[in-house]
């Protein structure tokens, strides 16, 4: 059965219609990501329960500044159809301890929830004020993660998912044979994440910014279309290691900084050229780990 990623759903009231348009029902849903602004006043727990009619699924909640091109206070990323070996996990956070303590707790909790499966991608949402502390997450990742380092992305948020939470972690796990995809970029030899991990027909990629993979220098400062082109080519370079291309990308989550919102529509045609079959969720984040980054893209691909 093929995994389905719905186009962004503008709230739980629209979920039934979105599922019906894809020929799906609520029992087909296997994971929901709630991209939520601080202005959200909805009781999402009640709205979720009503929309899913009691069907229980893992839920990730991601704090964002806004939904690109929309005034809706939140948007849903919906994954449907179970796939053999793929374990969808809820996001986790704690309010106890310092940044490193919280990061370690989140990783350990996700490992616990994954059971015998291996984490194949992590996305951390860290408080902007902790940017200088971010390198300290390397130690807990080395201590807690297994021998196969996952793909990863890191996003900064001004308003955390809960008061006192310095980090929230989202993850996907998989069982069965795993394959790391790396086009020969040596920088990943010393990092605790990889460009992508393939699990069966699924490829979970890291977050990509406009970074030279050899020199590790940020590129195209202030030029969003040029950054986007570099990102999209990098993604296709990694996918080629699995004999795949941008056509196999089924989901693309794009984190746009506030400085890039005005120029973001200029990347639409480029994105559609590289990833014609992707369900694209575009949200405004507070900032990215590299101050010059205007965009970070997190793709998922499914091979034929």
Automatic annotation (TrEMBL):
Kindly give the InterPro entries that the UniProt entry links to this protein: RutC-like_sf (IPR035959), YjgF/YER057c/UK114 (IPR006175)
- Record-linked Gene3D superfamilies: RutC-like
Top-level division of the source organism's lineage: Bacteria
Pfam families per the UniProt record, alphabetical? Ribonuc_L-PSP
Indicate what this protein is called per its UniProt record: Enamine deaminase RidA, house cleaning of reactive enamine intermediates, YjgF/YER057c/UK114 family
């Amino acid at each position: 059965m093929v995994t389905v990623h719905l186009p962004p759903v503008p709230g739980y009231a629209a979920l039934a219609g979105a599922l019906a348009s894809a020929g799906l029902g609520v029992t087909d849903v296997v994971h929901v990501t709630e991209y939520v602004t601080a202005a959200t006043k909805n009781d999402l727990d009640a709205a979720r329960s009503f929309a899913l009619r009691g069907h229980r699924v893992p839920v990730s909640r991601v704090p964002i500044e806004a939904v690109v091109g929309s005034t809706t206070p939140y948007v849903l990323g919906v994954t449907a159809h179970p796939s053999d070996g793929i374990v969808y996990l809820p996001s986790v956070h704690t309010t106890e301890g310092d940044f490193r303590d919280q990061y370690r707790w989140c990783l350990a909790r996700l490992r616990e929830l994954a059971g015998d499966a291996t984490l194949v991608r992590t996305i951390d949402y860290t408080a902007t004020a902790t940017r200088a502390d971010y390198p300290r997450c390397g130690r807990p990742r080395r201590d807690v993660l297994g021998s196969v380092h996952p793909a990863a992305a890191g996003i900064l948020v001004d308003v955390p998912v809960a008061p006192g939470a310095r980090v929230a972690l989202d993850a996907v796990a998989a069982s069965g044979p795993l394959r790391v995809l790396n086009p020969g970029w040596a920088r990943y030899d010393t990092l605790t994440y990889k460009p992508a991990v393939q699990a069966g027909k699924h490829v979970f990629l890291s977050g990509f910014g406009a970074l030279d993979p050899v020199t590790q220098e940020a590129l195209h400062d202030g030029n969003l279309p040029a950054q986007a082109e570099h990102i999209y080519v990098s993604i296709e370079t990694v996918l080629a290691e699995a004999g795949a291309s941008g056509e196999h990308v089924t989901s693309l989550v794009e984190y746009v900084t506030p400085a890039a919102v005005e120029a973001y529509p200029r990347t639409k045609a480029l994105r559609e050229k590289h990833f014609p079959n992707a369900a694209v969720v575009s949200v405004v984040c507070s900032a990215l780990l590299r101050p010059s980054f205007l965009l970070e893209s997190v793709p998922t691909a499914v091979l034929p």
